[in-house]
């Protein structure tokens, strides 16, 4: 079987490494350099924490972490164990987080509820907050290092990894996939996998597929301040977050994952929203370690979001056209699990429950 993966970000390269284990002829096409688009713009977090934990989401995280754990043991990648502090700005959300801590503990995640008075121990000014959910095993990765590790593993397994190769169309014959057109020529394929991140909706259109995907902005400012040494990855109820980088630098971003039907942005024409910039620049009001900060860099990424918050993985209505997209802000967290599920779908070994929960046809009817 001839397989073409479109997209060389975290999902595409993880999938290439996984599919390289088999006997199929696998090629990956990336329009730019590997991991240089949405993946590079991410905060790089593997997140065990979430305010509404479910058993299925835990299973996906467990699967993904088994792959990352193997790479860490082999020294193929590195990570900082930051943990996460999710801060409540209302009593209602505090109650949600307190319940989430109990559920996560049942799933084997080291989690606890932090009272407002305890927030200062984590570098957060407690005034105006109602407590938080603290998890300890969440890790910060360098996203491009992950992509490089997966791409190296894919190449070692015989995958044809093509950079600076933009897919310009999906070729169909009698309604089924026959290949792709690229700016470097035609590639025949029995299977085309859409792992194109924010370009996934466009690729779907070329294949005659309609899937509920929208874009949300991921703006980021890199700040230098006095000290972020005691700060975990800190996510506020209002969606702002602070990801410490070293002892005095932090990324300040916005974790917006609400599905808005039809919301699309042009990935190459993004700018920092004014309201986000104002909120980010006042972050030292709640994180004193960033007082007297200076902005040293800024960028904007795009998340691809689904209505139910789960990725779309599996064969679409167009035979031979598969989706591996829509991780809803959890691309780093879920990429190896997405790769496993897609590979097992092609092999015919995927668990029925997993298939139904992630299948593209779950949105039909």
TrEMBL record:
Domain FAD dependent oxidoreductase intervals: 2-344
Classification via Pfam families: DAO
Lineage top rank: taxon: Archaea
Tagged with keyword Oxidoreductase: yes
GO molecular function annotations of the record: oxidoreductase activity
Assigned EC number: 1.-.-.-
Keyword Transmembrane helix: no
Native species: Natribaculum luteum
Top EC class of this enzyme: oxidoreductase
Keyword annotations: Oxidoreductase
Protein's UniProt name: NAD(P)/FAD-dependent oxidoreductase
InterPro entries: FAD-dep_OxRdtase, FAD/NAD-bd_sf
């Amino acid at each position: 079987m001839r397989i073409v993966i479109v997209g060389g970000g975290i999902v595409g390269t993880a999938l290439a490494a996984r599919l390289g284990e088999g006997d199929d002829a696998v090629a990956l096409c990336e329009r730019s350099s590997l991991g240089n688009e949405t993946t590079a713009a991410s905060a790089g977090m593997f997140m065990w924490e979430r305010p509404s934990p479910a058993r299925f989401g835990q299973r996906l995280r467990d699967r993904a972490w088994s792959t990352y754990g193997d790479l860490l043991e082999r020294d193929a990648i590195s990570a900082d164990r930051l943990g996460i502090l999710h801060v409540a700005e209302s009593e209602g959300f505090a109650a949600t987080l307190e319940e989430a801590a109990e559920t996560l503990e049942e799933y084997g995640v080291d989690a606890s509820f932090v009272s407002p008075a305890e927030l200062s121990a984590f570098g957060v000014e407690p005034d105006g907050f109602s407590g938080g959910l603290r998890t300890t095993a969440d890790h910060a990765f360098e996203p491009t290092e992950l992509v490089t590790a997966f791409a190296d593993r894919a190449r070692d397994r015989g995958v044809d990894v093509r950079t600076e190769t933009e897919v310009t169309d999906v070729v169909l014959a009698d309604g089924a996939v026959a290949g792709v057109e690229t700016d470097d020529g035609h590639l025949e394929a029995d299977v085309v996998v859409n792992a194109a991140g924010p370009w996934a909706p466009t690729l779907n259109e070329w294949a005659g597929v309609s899937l509920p995907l929208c874009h949300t902005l991921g703006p980021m400012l890199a700040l230098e301040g006095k000290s972020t040494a005691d700060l975990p990855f800190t996510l506020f109820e209002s969606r702002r977050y602070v990801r410490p980088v070293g002892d005095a630098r932090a990324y300040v971003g916005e974790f917006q994952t609400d599905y808005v039907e039809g919301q699309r942005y042009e990935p190459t024409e993004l700018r920092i929203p004014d309201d986000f910039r104002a909120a980010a620049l006042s972050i030292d009001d709640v994180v004193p370690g960033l007082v007297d900060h200076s902005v040293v860099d800024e960028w904007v990424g795009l998340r691809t979001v689904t209505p139910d918050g789960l990725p779309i993985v599996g064969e679409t209505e167009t035979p031979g056209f598969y989706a591996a997209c829509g991780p809803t802000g959890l691309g780093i967290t879920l990429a190896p699990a997405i790769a496993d599920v897609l590979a097992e779908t092609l092999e015919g070994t995927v668990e029925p429950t997993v298939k139904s929960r992630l299948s593209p046809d779950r949105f039909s009817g």
